[in-house]
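Handoff note, outgoing to incoming analyst
You'll be picking up this chain. Sequence as last confirmed:
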Amino acid sequence: MDKPRLAWAITGSGHYIKECLDFMLTLNAVDLYISQAGEEVLKMYGVDLTDVRAVMPVYRDKAASAPPVGHFYKGYYHTFVMAPTTSNTMAKCVLGIADSLVTNLYAQAGKCRVPSIVYPCDIAPEMETTAPSGKVMVYPRRIDLEATEKLRGFEYTTVVESVDELIRVVTKRLQLIDA
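Most recent structure output, in case you need it:
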């Protein structure tokens, strides 16, 4: 490894998933991690993983122990991004549950003091999101909004509220790394 990379995880949320993926594909030195639900959602949105694999490594959630998380202990990653992130993943992260590839990545990033940038799908009581058929209105539950708020207080974690903010925060982080 020449220099640390960025680890990016996609969960089962379709919340502006194409915009997140389009931005991620503009970046260099990225490894993509996909939850089982994330893989299903990418297919629903017409994303061909063959195209993604042509430009970056893609890890799928297939092993119970999530072996790739060991990369954090070797200094392989400088930043972990979860975008977009389901309310289920957010709740597990808040409770410290690391029972999937993505939640384990978040836990290990924190234990290794690697900054995480999280774009949750539930950020406001009333919001527009993307579905495979187009834009729809959703009304996140109080418990989902509470998990988003709680994660804001976690060390080494930045929660963003839009694709534009995700782009700004990731870009700023990469500039710090390259400085």
